[in-house]
Description:
Order of helices and strands: EHEHEEEHHEHEEEHHHEHHEHHEEHH
CATH class of the largest domain: Alpha Beta
Low-confidence stretches: none
CATH superfamily of the largest domain: Glycerate kinase, domain 2
Structural class: alpha/beta
Oligomer: single chain
Radius of gyration: 22 Å
CATH topology of the largest domain: Glycerate kinase, domain 2
Amino acid sequence: MKLNYIVVAIDSFKGSLSSWEAGRTAREAVQAVFPEAEVDVFPLADGGEGTVDALADGLQGTIVPVVVTGPLNTPVNSRYGCVPDDKLAIIEMADAAGLPLVPVEKRNPLHTTTYGLGELILQALDDGCRDFIIGIGGSATNDCGLGMLTALGWKFLKADGSPAGICGGNLAEVAAIDGSGVEARLKECRFRIACDVKNPLYGSQGCSAVFGPQKGATPEIVKVMDEAIHHFADLAEKELRTLGATVPGAGAAGGLGFAFRTFLGGELTPGTELCLETIGIRQALEKADLLLTGEGRLDRQTAMGKGPAGVAQLAHKLNDKIKTVAVCGCALPDAEQVNRHGIDAYFPILHMPMTAEEAMEEKTTRLNLKQTVTQVMQLLK
């Protein structure tokens, strides 16, 4: 098989190699077998964990550390990716308000806030960013963006004119919305939200009922939260003259989908699609002979729109001659579903029995990945 141009876009092997590290390792193996071929490496992410690192590395940006207000209203160390030349900020809301930041015994979405996410946005504004890509998976919150919006200058008032608060449990008391003090620079901004959840804001398929229990909500708390969010949404839609509660994705991240769309004009986009658009991979795929992709674990969820399947489907859409091969740390029995979603063949990289801990050592992962890609290339030679 003649391979003149090869595109490498591999998601991270979590705990072992970043997307960029995996891609460069694979490129070394490809070039050892096809030294004359042109090989381009692109970062791959789907809007979830690892998106900040993948896109910041791939777009020659930097990671900016920031201390923000965590979900329990205490300081936490957070971060975002900054690409100054593009005025681009890449944020994972879980870095400021994610479920892992809340100990199991303290999980109660009535008492958590997205305020720190607003602080991350403000820091990015101060650093010159005006284009935002924000992944909103993994939240510990159900505050409908109340905390984030408060940090950005909105005032949410009780009937007596006092501040309502910034946590999920404060939504029911919001009687008025005052936008006179909103951060003016937000008008210059574009918000693209990586959102794979299609749930509406409230009701039996809303954020409280579907996602509340995993954040610590009892059935009683779910009922209280759903009613409070319904009340808040009605008020916001009336005040802002924008309908958003029933839009697919409004219920993502405890109502953050609604908040971004209604208050900030955000665009809710599937994560893989958004990340692929950002890295500018389309033109490369149009002329490539081979796409080499993959991730740490291949399974049926990969086939449901995660990075490797997403880039493979795009490749076949743009180029009917391209072949796609995936490599992975392990492949579950249901991984064969990816063959119906753009991946022509996949290869686990383990070569001998070992524990998961041994397999995930960086040196071992790098060696196994390099050996497997080399053998795939030998087959295609």
